[in-house]
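Same chain as my last thread, 175 residues:
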Amino acid sequence: MRVISAAATAALTTVTALSLAVPSAFADEQPSFSATPNPAKPGDSVILSVSGGCQAESATATSEVFDSVVPLSTGSAGIYTGTAKIRSGASAGAHPVQVDCEGSVSSYSINISASTTSTPTPTATPTNPAPSRGVQGGLGGSSDDLPLAPIALGSGLIAALGGTLWFRNRRPTRR
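reply #2:
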């Protein structure tokens, strides 16, 4: 009876392990996508990277915020890279990006931040500024929140040491 129970447990464990592993082995793996910098500003050049799930010689990336279709070429590590130029009139927010890997299209998004072109305003600085008031000296090392127990203990130890020294020096010495 024990042999049948052990065999049934082993079979059930094997079937469970295989049923969990099989779907992931046959599932279409979607490539991972990254854009650097993300978020990007209008007018920026952005490096696009796609890895995993694509076995083509080349791929392309398209988006409404790119100046043109971006060809992605692969290196020795199987990572597809390309440089996209963000349109100067691109609006802030998330924008869709489609990556085409020989007919297999995956969708991602890229974030565009608001254009922050600011002009510095010159400020007048005096050539010899005079101090507006004197130096703040503080309380000279005093504090309001000292605990009394350590102070009392330290004072008691100093007093005991002083009393011991005084008593030893007052005793008559034997000759």
